[in-house]
Design brief:
Blueprint (H helix, E strand, L loop, with lengths): L3 H10 L6 H18 L7 E11 L11 E4 L2 E8 L4 E12 L2 E13 L6 E9 L20 H6 L5 E10 L5 E9 L20 E12 L3 E12 L13 H7 L18 E11 L9 E12 L6 H11 L9 E14 L2 E16 L2 E19 L2 E13 L8 E12 L7
Keywords: Signal
InterPro entries: Porin_dom_sf
Protein name: Beta-barrel porin-2, OmpL-like. bbp2
């Protein structure tokens, strides 16, 4: 079925056109084309994404470890349930420290016929905050997400919840939305092992505005806010309880496995901007994408007044209580200069604080990544990436240059990618 549309196009291009035999064959094939291109509940779109790699050394807060490995191998099914609803299921197979794991990344239903531009999505799905988060990892132009995503969203944030979105009837694209999630992967450490978390812990609000500049350029600007009811540390770990601290403190699991955020806070603010250019509007053969995002995670602890005074007396400026936020940003440029080759350059910086004994210590991570990719088709990519990282306060401080080789292969029909 995959090659039938191509075969039909070739038949249509043949001369002379008034060929009775070709006309009969085309009339017989057209219903099959329509059935193949419009997945229904009895004929869902099924796809598998294969992700494999070799990495020369470990990197901070990435799930890809040194050596050969598998990334997120994805199995997805999607279809229109009826004229009112659409559904999608996505599972991810991961391999970590000698063990295989299966995660349900998406399992949601979405309305398709609500009036006045409203849409409701419910179940498990990717949050629409920021620019990259609502996109699957295999669509990225780099082997790993920017450090801001790895630190604050566990790579990419998906959760159980509900979303209401609205597209305004304006000449310019304008999307507004709000979400409510369980928020289990964004909970702060349970320092006392007796903490009661809110069952609905995360609330988000976002807006995205975009438009075209002539026929060759387009842009989008977004603002997002996330309130995490369970995101604050309430006490500091005691010095003698090293095992408890290592197990629960943010930032200790620097591979970021399990898609849990390494750093949390009560308020997260995100600003993002994307610009795309393609000569004559033909994105297939040549295009440029420029993007940037800024994250600020505020109020990551709440301590009693006497604790502030005691720790300030003992540690002075080392406690650094006045700077109650983490922040990170990145800028990225990806240029596809031929139909089969693209190159990308990204630079990002993370400034965070890690709990150490009874105080916090600053951390800094700077990353520069150069990516060169060969695309034999829309379904296959082979990528070479050189990452240079310099950091303060993290492990792997001496692993300055890391080389990664990656392949991403798609089998079957896959839904369209985001802007």
């Amino acid at each position: 079925m995959k090659n039938l549309p191509v075969f039909a196009a070739r038949l249509a291009a043949q001369r002379p056109v008034p060929n009775v035999k070709n006309a009969i064959l085309m009339s017989a094939l057209l219903p099959l084309f329509a059935h193949a291109q419009a997945p229904t509940l009895s004929n869902p779109a099924v796809s598998v994404v294969l992700d494999g790699y070799y990495q020369s050394d470990d990197r901070v807060m990435t799930e890809r470890a040194k050596g050969f490995g598998l990334g997120g191998t994805e199995l997805a099914l999607s279809a229109s349930i009826d004229d009112m609803f659409y559904g999608k299921f996505t599972s991810v197979f991961e391999f970590h420290e000698g063990e295989s794991e299966i995660l349900v990344e998406e399992a949601f239903m979405q309305t398709m016929a609500l009036p006045n531009g409203f849409t409701v999505r419910a179940g498990r799905f990717l949050s629409d905050i920021g620019y990259l988060n609502n996109q699957h990892l295999h669509t990225d132009a780099f082997t790993s997400r920017p450090s801001a995503y790895r630190a604050f969203l566990g790579g990419h944030y998906f959760d159980d919840g509900i979303r209401l979105s609205y597209i305004a009837p304006t000449d310019m694209y304008w999307l507004l939305g709000a979400e409510a999630f369980a928020g289990k992967n964004l909970r702060a450490a349970d320092e006392s092992a007796e903490r009661e978390y809110s069952s609905t812990g995360v609330y988000t609000a976002f807006t995205k505005i975009g438009g075209d500049i002539g026929i060759e350029s387009s842009w989008q600007f977004g603002l997002s806010y996330m309130r995490n009811e369970n995101g604050q540390l309430t006490t500091l770990a005691e010095h003698e309880d090293e095992h408890h601290e290592d197990e629960h403190s943010a930032g200790h699991d620097e591979h970021g496995h399990g898609h849990a955020a390494a750093y949390t806070g009560k308020h997260t603010y995100i600003a993002d901007f994307v610009y795309k250019w393609a000569p004559n509007g033909n994105y297939k053969y040549q295009h440029l994408t420029l993007s940037a995002e800024y994250f600020r995670v505020a109020d990551f602890f709440t301590l009693a007044e006497h604790e502030h005074s005691d720790h300030d007396d003992h540690h002075g400026e080392e406690a650094n209580y006045t700077q109650d936020y983490h922040q990170a940003w990145y800028v990225s440029g990806v240029y596809q200069f031929t139909p089969h080759w693209s190159a990308g350059l990204r630079y990002g910086k993370l400034a965070s604080h890690v709990q150490h004994d009874d105080h916090f210590e600053p951390q800094t991570l700077k990353e520069t990544e150069l990516s060169i990719a060969w695309h034999n088709s829309h379904f296959s990519t082979v990528r070479f990436e050189l990452s240079h990282q310099s950091n303060l306060g993290f492990e792997h401080a001496n692993n300055e240059n890391v080389i990664t080789l990656q392949y991403v292969m798609t089998l079957g029909a896959h839904s369209a990618h985001q802007f």
